[in-house]
Amino acid sequence: MFRNNNCQHRLEGKKNLWIVKPGAMSRGRGISVYSNLAEIKDLIGADLNVIASGKWVAQKYIEHPMLIHDVKFDIRQWFVVTDWEQLTVWMYRKSGIHFS
Q1: For the chain, what are the domain ranges?
Q2: Second-level CATH architecture of 1-64
Q3: Distance of CA 57 to CAs 17, 32, 48, 61, 77, Å?
Q4: Which end of the chain is more exposed for a tag (fewer CB within 10 A), N or C?
Q5: In terms of DSSP H, where are the helices of 1-100?
């Protein structure tokens, strides 16, 4: 059932890994990987709303990423939202590929 509803099931793996990083950092500073919610709560405190406030970012780690010549990559596309009431979104025509 799960595989039928999730087109990315092959990427996720079985370890349930999550990346947690400070919201105001860059260049990979302060990044930790967790598989247990209790460990994440110990890091940021019991109030998970601090993630929603932007102090922390939590995202699912892709355990089996797509690779180009055995190198992980991501595609970066930029958008600007100028109006929420009548949703207006501008998309930058060019995108980029970031290799890590």
Answers
A1: 1-64, 66-100
A2: 2-Layer Sandwich (3.30)
A3: 14, 11, 11, 12, 19
A4: N
A5: 2-5, 9-12, 37-44, 49-52
The confidence score (pLDDT) of residue 82 equals 93
Phi-psi bin for 35: left (phi > 0), alpha (psi -120 to 50), beta? Answer: alpha
Cβ pair 66, 99 in contact under 8 A: no
Instruction: Classify 4 as helix, strand or coil.
Output: helix
* Strand ranges across the sheet with 32-34: 32-34, 18-22, 56-60
pLDDT band of residue 17 (cuts 50, 70, 90) is confident
